[in-house]
Amino acid sequence: MKLDLERQGEGRTILAVAGGVELELPEDWPQRAELNGELTVDNVGSRFLINGTLRATGQADCARCLDSFRLEWEVPVEIMVLRDVHSDEGSDDSLVLHQKKGVVDLTEPLRECAVLALPPAPICRDDCRGICAQCGADLNQNPCGCVAEDVDPRWEGLPE
């Protein structure tokens, strides 16, 4: 996932992205993401603006039932490459890289975009029932035999 500044034409072009990045996250999270899609590259002389939305896939553990599943998520990308290495121009929402010429490696900025776009609590499906808080049974497989207590014992001493 590289962008050659010297071969990039004037104006707007498309950069195809297909490849994997190591996410470097704790073990319950995806360790690797496969990124696919197209990004728009605007060459405006002293800077390159790279933006678009990529599709990411990776293996994750469900936050409700703890099963491993294939997680898919969208990765918004907004990167600015400044050719004037002494410029402090930039946007608060964009990743800013400083490189005058040559080939820019976009692997690290794309990794950062993928990590930032991860859902905070990935779930395997919308109707996932999780696990029983008392016995730990997977409620997606079978209902457990635990009796649900209606009253929290910490509230028993209070008058009704």
Please provide a written account of the structure.
7% of the residues lie in helices and 40% in strands. It is mainly β and 160 residues long. The protein has one domain (2-128). The chain has a five-stranded mixed beta sheet with strand order 2-3-4-5-6. A two-stranded antiparallel ribbon has the order 1-7. The mean pLDDT is 84.
- How many angstroms separate the termini? 65 Å
How many H/I helices? 1
Radius of gyration from CA coordinates: 23 Å
Low-confidence stretches: none
Number of strands: 7
Strand content: 35-45%
Q: Indicate the overall shape.
A: elongated
Classify the secondary structure makeup into a structural class: mainly beta
Strand adjacency order, main sheet: 2-3-4-5-6
Order of helices and strands: EEEEEEEH
Mean pLDDT: 84
Major sheet details: 5 strands, mixed
Number of domains: 1
Percent helix, as a range, is under 10%
Give a brief description:
With 160 residues, the chain is mostly beta strands. The chain contains one helix and seven strands. The strands form two sheets. Strands 2-3-4-5-6 form a five-stranded mixed sheet.
Defining key terms:
two-stranded antiparallel sheet, 160 residues, five-stranded mixed β-sheet, 1 helix, 40% strand, mainly beta
Chart the SSEs and their pairings.
Layout: E1 2-4, E2 11-22, E3 32-43, E4 47-61, E5 68-82, E6 95-98, E7 103-105, H1 107-117
Parallel strand pairs: 5-6
Antiparallel strand pairs: 1-7, 2-3, 3-4, 4-5
